[in-house]
Amino acid sequence: MHRFAGLIAAFSLAGCASIPEPRPPQDAGVVEQPEPIPADNALAAGLTPGPAIETMPFASFDATPALAAFRRSCAKILFRDDSSGLTRRVDWQAPCGAAENWTGDPADFFRTQFETAVVGDGSAFATGYYEPEILGSRTRQPGYDVPVYAMPDDLERAWTASTPESERTGRPPLGRYNEAGEFVQYYERAEIKAGALAGKVPVIAWAADPVEFFFLQIQGSGLLRLPDGEVMRIGYAGQNGREYVAIGRPMREQGMIGDGTPYPTSMQGIISWLRDHPEEADAILDLNKSWIFFRELDTEGPLGSLEVPVFRQDSVAVDPKFVPYGAPVWLHMEADVADGLWIAQDTGGAIKGANRFDTFWGNGADAREIAGQMSSRGKAYLLLPKGTLARLKP
To answer: What is the rounded distance in angstroms from the CA atom of residue 205 to the CA atom of residue 226?
Structure first.
């Protein structure tokens, strides 16, 4: 957020303070997602020129917030490498310089600074995420019993003793050292709910509803409405390293939701089932062993993994191996509400492969509704700084 998160943010772990963590997955497992393109990055997936930039139907009402979002991204993308293989830091200097003092039609900014490209076949698949608002309290009191944990001090990265040297490549897994000094997996959701961290890890707040908090964890960020009416924004700080399980899929397979039931295959349907079956809800929620840790934010919006605030209908989560962070993306989807300019400012555990997008819808009841039902296919055009295609010679 996220999710963010997610929606969604890149924050450091205790014991490995320079390692960024991705926002957790956003979907609840009710969407049949396409298989990602088996390629390492955008260049491997294939890059072709898109339509002439002059023919793109940019509108000022859409380009205005997109320009503001791009401008916010420049503080980061000018100083980080692009894992997609498409751009260099220097490529962003011209559009970022132009964005800083642009006073003309925002649509013309995108027409003059960028050119379009298609990654792979450009067939896009988009879901949605949002910033939930749930009831919470800074202190534990009657009705507020669900701990919102900060990052644990004992969550580390290391190799287990049983991992052969030949397999010790990339980043070590997350886990903890037990009393015997052995590196083991970290506590899973059921163990944390049972009190494994009680008294050992700081609690930054207490949530009122375990189901609502579960979905806030999936989004990766959210708002806590405090008893005095104030709002506390919390953002993704880390994850326990355990398996993320999208609970919608097993629920559908077991006939709990979907055809022939009163519960649609959507986030709303899942929540309704959990509400109506409280005696079975814990077992379903515990299928997802992942647990998200949070920190309090004082930003104007939730933070994406680019570490800039994300905003409604402007920010999109991408796989950064296929879309450079900060890059504008034009989506033309079956769901018309998702059409238009988006800026790549976030990622997520479920957002993998070329042309896979997770659109951000802000907070509020309508945001929850749109994000919970967003599952759309269409076409994606990536906007790259002018001259990029000539250098890459796709």
So the answer is: 10
DSSP annotation of 90: G
- Give alpha helix (H) positions in the chain: 42-45, 60-77, 93-100, 106-113, 189-193, 210-219, 248-253, 267-276, 278-285, 365-373, 388-392
Task: Give the residue from 72, 36, 100, 48 showing the smallest Cα distance to 384.
Answer: 48
The Cα–Cα gap between 110 and 99 comes to 9
pLDDT of 240 > 50? The answer is: yes
Backbone phi and psi for residue 323, each to the nearest 5 degrees, phi listed first: -135, 120
Cis omega (within 30 of 0) on the bond before 2? yes
User: 113-142 pLDDT, tens per residue?
Assistant: 999 999 999 999 999 998 999 999 999 999
Q: Does the CA dihedral 176-291-163-18 come out positive or negative? A: negative
Distance CA 95, CA 74 (A): 9
Residues with Cβ within 8 Å of residue 191, at least 6 apart in sequence: none
Is the predicted pLDDT of residue 9 greater than 50, yes or no? no
Give bridge partners of residue 146 from the DSSP assignment: 207
Instruction: Give the pair of three-digit tokens for residue 22.
Output: 């991705």
- What is the maximal distance between C-alpha atoms in the chain? 65
Q: Per-residue pLDDT for 35 more than 50?
A: yes
- Helix or strand or coil: residue 346? strand
Residues ≥6 apart with Cβ < 8 Å to 238: 11, 13, 21, 151, 155, 292, 293
d(CA 328, CA 94): 15
Q: Give me the residue label for tokens 């009190």.
A: 195
Say if CB 158 and CB 183 are below 8 A apart: yes
Q: Which domains does the chain have, with CATH numbers?
A: 42-246+288-392 (2.40.40.10), 247-287 (no CATH)
CA distance 82 to 326: 10
Q: Give tens-digit pLDDT for 318-330.
A: 999 999 999 999 9
